[in-house]
Specification:
Elements lengths: L1 H28 L17 E4 L5 E4 L12 H4 L18 H16 L6 E7 L4 H14 L4 E7 L4 H9 L7 E7 L7 H5 L12 H4 L5 E5 L3 E3 L3 H5 L11 E5 L9 H4 L10 E9 H6 L1 E2 L8 E2 H12 L7 H11 L4 E3 L18 H6 L3 E3 L11 H12 L6 H14 L5 H4 L1 H20 L3
Parallel strand pairs: 3-4, 3-6, 4-5, 8-12
Antiparallel strand pairs: 1-2, 6-9, 7-13, 8-9, 10-11
Length: 440
């Protein structure tokens, strides 16, 4: 008997709540203010509608189109398509906010793709090499690219001339910057390791409006879309601020673990030729260090590090990064060697297993191997991409001639595994034609 009484009381309570909720909604619907013309709140979300040809235009209001005007209380809330309308506060019109959620969903679907930001630093005789690197990024990437090019003054006009002459202008934009170091120590930073190389350390402080950035050396070649390495940002945990590859896979030939006179990350150190950064996090982080018990921010730690270790470092800014991440290992995301494949991965025998299995994703021709005959496998790929003309068939004018050249390098250790060098390249070209056939 008691059980039936409890069930009856529960039903009565639910009915009473439903009655009160319905009364409150009815009262809200009867407010006269809703029937009056409403001025558009500047903070309200903009609704969009499709125009002819698939172009998206903004609709500031709905007057004159026969569409119902949404109440301000719905407009002013941050409502998105995953917030169910029945979970909204009681003083909000559920139906109108439900429709607004649909508008927002359409708005999100029609937003242009976010640009991927890529930075490079070029000094001296690096114009051709840099343009070839940018060319490889344009060929294979899917989403739009924003290039940040830091170069000496005498190179600016040459860069403009070369980049303005490239097709696919809608696929990339670029900005050219002067080489910039802190005034009081500019000379010291500029001569560290190679001319201008340490500029990369100051990118988070210069590009203050850029949230995330992929920095690469001029001697980098992309063999798959930049989109793919950019996606590592989504794999960062809450402590990661940057991603790099190990300096070596094989400790027996490693440099840092055999010769370094300073702290370094992990077992063999890290290579900074390909460096993916969440720069917002870098600017906010306070770094542990061995110079003071106080935590220092990025702009505060660079000069003290240089002063302490300048007599003990060999590879300049890369050594400073190794020191920083030695003390803050939780902040580094390490990606596999095929994302920064260098001659050391094959000149003494193949030691990058990930590349053997899946191919090379990003080629790094350090030590000038694109411009001499010491590593003809690397040079062949560089020359093939440099000579390729946009619009030519990628199979007949890039892949097939390249494979013929690579077959001539089989007298070298790297040449013996030349198929590793074109494994991913072949797939990237096939993916390009697949996307074109699907109209995407």
């Amino acid at each position: 008997m008691r059980r039936y009484v409890r069930v009856a009381l529960l039903c009565l309570g639910c009915g009473l709540c439903s009655l009160l909720y319905g009364s409150s909604q009815l009262a809200l619907e009867q407010e006269p203010a809703w029937g009056k013309p409403q001025a558009r709140d500047p903070a309200a979300p903009v609704r969009r509608q499709r125009a002819g040809g698939g172009r998206v235009v903004a609709a500031a209001g709905s007057a004159g189109r026969g569409e119902p005007e949404l109440p301000d209380r719905c407009k002013n809330l941050s409502i998105s398509y995953w917030n169910s309308y029945w979970m909204l506060p009681s003083d909000v019109c559920g139906m109108n906010c439900f429709w607004e959620a649909a508008f927002r969903y359409d708005f999100m679907k029609t937003q242009p793709a976010e640009k991927m930001h890529l930075a490079v630093v070029a000094c001296g005789e690096r114009l051709e090499e840099t343009v070839t690197m940018l060319k490889s990024a344009i060929i294979f990437s899917i989403q739009p690219l924003q290039f940040h090019i830091f170069a000496e003054g005498q190179l600016h006009n040459s860069f403009k001339g070369r980049l303005n002459g490239l097709p696919y202008q809608g696929k990339f934009n670029y900005t050219i910057y002067p080489i910039t170091f802190p005034t009081e120590s500019a000379a010291e930073w500029k001569k560290l390791f190679k001319p201008c190389a340490s500029q990369r350390l100051f990118l988070p402080l210069i590009l203050k409006d850029v949230d995330s950035l992929l920095y690469v050396d001029t001697d980098i070649l992309f063999l798959r879309p930049v989109d793919d390495i950019w996606s590592f940002l989504k794999k960062f945990n809450s402590t990661h601020i940057a991603a790099m590859a190990p300096e070596h896979e094989e400790p027996r030939i490693g440099w840092y673990n055999r010769f370094a006179r300073h702290p370094y990350y992990g077992i063999t150190g890290i290579n900074s030729g390909v460096m993916l950064m969440n720069m917002t996090r870098i600017r906010r982080k306070y770094f542990k260090n061995d110079m003071t018990t106080a935590l220092l921010q990025w702009g505060e730690i660079l000069m003290p590090l240089l002063k302490k270790y300048k007599l003990n470092i060999t590879w300049g800014d890369q050594d400073l990064l190794n020191i920083m991440f030695f003390h803050n290992p939780e902040s580094l995301f390490v990606f596999p060697c095929q994302w920064n494949y260098r001659p050391d991965h094959c000149i003494y025998g193949s030691n990058c297993k990930e590349a053997e299995e899946n191919g090379i994703f990003i080629l790094h021709g350090n030590r000038g191997v694109y411009h001499d005959d010491k590593q003809p496998t690397f040079r062949a790929i560089y020359e093939a991409i440099k000579k390729y003309s946009f619009g030519d068939d990628l199979v007949n004018f890039l892949l097939q001639p390249l494979e013929l050249e690579l077959q001539k390098t089989m007298h070298t250790y790297c040449g013996r595994i030349y198929k590793v060098f074109i494994k991913q390249l072949t797939k990237s070209i096939r993916d390009i034609y697949d996307r074109r056939s699907k109209g995407s």
